[in-house]
Amino acid sequence: MTRDGSKLSGSSATGAQVVVRIRDVKRIYHLGKVEVRALQGINLIVEKGEFLSIMGPSGCGKSTLMHIIGCLDRPSSGHISIDEVDVDELDDNRLADIRNRKVGFVFQTFNLLPKLNAIENVELPLIYAGAGFEERRKKASELLNVVGLNDRMYHRPSELSGGQSQRVAIARALANDPSLILADEPTGNLDSKSGEEIIHLFEELNNRGITLIIVTHDKDIAGHSKRIVRLKDGLVLSDEKIK
Amino acid sequence: MSVFIWEEIKQASRSLASNKVRSFLTMLGVIIGIFSVITLVTIGEGAKTYITDQIKNLGAGYDSFILAAGKDQNTPPNPKFIYADIAYFKNQVPEIRDIVALNPGSGEFAYGKMTLKASMIMGETANAMQLMGGSLSSGRFFTEAEVEGRKKVVVIGPTVAKTFFGDSSPIGERIKIRGDRYVIIGVSESRGSIGPIDMDKRAVIPITTSNNMMGNDKIMRFNIFPKDIKKIDEVEQKLAEVVKRRIRSDDFRFMTQQGILNIVNNVLGALTGFVAGIAAISLLVGGIGIMNIMLVAVNERVREIGVRKAIGAKRRDIVIQFLVESMLISMIGGILGIFFGLLGAFLIIWSIKGTLVIAWWAVIMATTVSAAVGIFFGVYPAMRAAALDPVEALRYE
Do B338 and B267 belong to one domain? Predict the structure, then answer.
């Protein structure tokens, strides 16, 4: 399991538990004959309880990095671990398990399933985790409570506003008590007021100890986080703690 | 896992319900295939029961067989049998217990100014009633003496009695049959119809009298009752030799209930094979339709698949999701086909006054086959869905 000395302990220099550990990750893919070097050697450690923004111009590799952290994609080289599990070595099924239990996704376009109502959407990760009906319902309604949607549980996504939809999506992301929440431009499709509310919800969740990584190009949004990582041309340009 | 399957079924039914017309059209191939098989098999089963009953009614129960004039059913019979053959055959083949002679004919019945056209006139021997089943509601059957004496006596069916005499007793009354007067001595119990022949609208007269009426002395048919029904083949062989010698011709044939049933089974078997072929083509086309629509469904839901994968669905989960949906389409189609097939068969059987016999083996097989069609033709689209790359799928617009 251990490939080098740096990974012997589960803690970083500050002693906190490491949620994401990325070492020299490169991701190269091919568009026809063109070789795209999306990530050219990223190093990053995210500790438990952090609220991190990943910023950068389009094409800087932030989406690719998010997909790799979210276990939707694998690095071409380098290593990544989630909760100290080397996910780059896992097969598709184990990777699906990690996505199910360790990572919660929040998308720019919410990506709720239109035929399911709010509570059923929140239950979905619990179904894939094999939870029974009673357990699922209980957990899902608790989470909808947390995001402030206890009066909209049985509404379909088409009957919800953008802000409400994003809250359902956040509840869904929280369903299996993941180690981190990954949000890709979570306010990109919202008006400023709803966006504000969502950011406050994130802050609240972070205060409860939930690790958050937000990919955004919006400085105001990033300003709410505690640490900003800027990417450029597939490399980390800067990494600063702001709070 | 069972919880998961149940969720999948719930979600699949919703997705089918949200596209009702499309789902129904997709099912149509399966519906037609299963419908045609179920209809035919059910009618076939009904027909077998019906024919067995009717053959029993004709008197060829399992205790007798028929000796009829004519080499086969297709050549018009030129009967060479006569009344005296009964005694001769019995004498030559002592294994025969008894013989009933039958001459079917038709003509007009009249009473006063009332007439019954194109009614059946049966010439029979005196033992026919007792040996071939059937009973009288009033009066008596004719005696051997009356047969020997070529008496003009008649046993009429209940419809004839009702038509001419209403509720009063017809016994002792005289009716005209093909212009001759006959004394009514008995009324038979209702027996319904045998195929196109209304058994209640007929007159039974002594076979000798019917010879007089037709102007010849020929007999069309004998029902042979062997002493030991297990030796039916032996009796048949022996009798064949005797008949050949007697009429100096092989222009006759034997029919047993089993033989007739075998013919029916052969015809039904060929028909079933034919319809099964059509059904197989229909199911194949239906299955391809399902595959096609499932591929469309996969394309429509690329993003959904991406989302499901992102939140933890494994390949297997996606495969099951789409397989459940395709199986549901074809199973609902199968169940509709079974329902309409049974309904169609029931209507047809009801119209010929038969009894509905549900062939459960066919129902179970139809359900299994339709489920199998759904799974078989659903596998490819499901695999395609499961193989989608989550990053690509999430990016899909």
Answer: yes
* Of residues B304, B390, B321, the one with CA closest to residue A109: B304
By residue range, what is the domain housing residue B168?
A: 79-250
User: Is residue A15 pLDDT above 60, yes or no?
Assistant: yes
Q: Which of A99, A110, A184 to mutate to test the interface with B (most CBs of B within 10 A)?
A: A99
Mean pLDDT in residue range B184-206? 84
CA B190, CA B201: separation in Å to the nearest integer?
9
Give strand pairing partners of A86: A81
Residues 166-195 of A with CB under 8 A from B: 172-173, 175-176
Q: What is the pLDDT of residues B270-303, one digit of tens each?
A: 887 888 888 888 889 999 999 999 999 999 999 9
Residues B125 and B13 both lie in one domain: no
| Position B232 confidence tier, pLDDT thresholds 50, 70, 90 | confident
Q: Give ipTM to 2 decimals.
A: 0.91
In a shared domain, residues B83 and B201: yes
**Cα(B123)–Cα(A88) distance, rounded to whole angstroms?**
96
Residue B62 in any domain: the answer is no
- Which chain A residue's Cα is nearest to B391? A72
- Residues B207, B111 share a domain: yes
CA distance B21 to chain A (A): 17
Among B250, B271, B293, the domain-final residue is B250
Q: With respect to residue B191, please indicate whether it lies within any of the assigned structural domains.
A: yes
On whether any CB of chain A is under 8 Å from the CB of B311, the answer is: yes
pLDDT tops 60 at residue A4? no
The predicted structure's pLDDT at residue A9:
42
Q: Are residues B41 and B181 in the same domain?
A: no
Domain count, chain B: 2
* Chain A residues inside the 8 Å CB shell of B311: 99-100, 105, 124-125, 128, 172-173, 175
Spatial separation of the C-alpha atoms in residues B38 and B32, rounded to whole Å: 10
What's the whole-number mean pLDDT along residues B166-194? 89
Say yes or no: B384 contacts chain A, CB-CB below 8 A. Answer: no
Has residue B74 been placed in a domain? no
Q: Does A70 touch chain B (CB under 8 A)?
A: yes
Q: Which of A65, A69, A90, A100 to mutate to test the interface with B (most CBs of B within 10 A)?
A: A100
SS3 state at A12: coil
pLDDT tens profile B328-347: 999 999 999 999 999 998 89
Strands B221-226 and B96-111: antiparallel
Containing H/E element for A42?
strand A34-47
Domain boundary (B223, B250, B277) is at: B250
Nearest to B100 by CA among B4, B243, B225: B225
Nearest residue, CB atoms, B4 vs list A67, A127, A173: A127
Q: How many residue pairs bridge chain A and chain B with CB atoms within 8 Å of each other?
A: 71
Check whether residue B208 and residue B87 sit in a common domain: yes
DSSP character for B143?
Answer: P
| Statement to judge: residues B16 and B101 lie in one domain | no
Judge whether residue A5 has pLDDT over 50: no
CA–CA distance, B242 with B305 (Å, rounded to integer): 83
Inter-chain residue contact A127 with B7, CB threshold 8 Å: yes
> Is B314 close to A128, i.e. CB distance below 8 A?
yes
A97 to chain B, any CB pair closer than 8 A? The answer is: yes
Do B130 and B246 belong together in one domain? yes
In a domain, B207, yes or no: yes
Q: By three-state DSSP, how is residue A131 classified?
A: coil
Q: How confident is the model at residue B34 (pLDDT cuts 50, 70, 90)?
A: very high
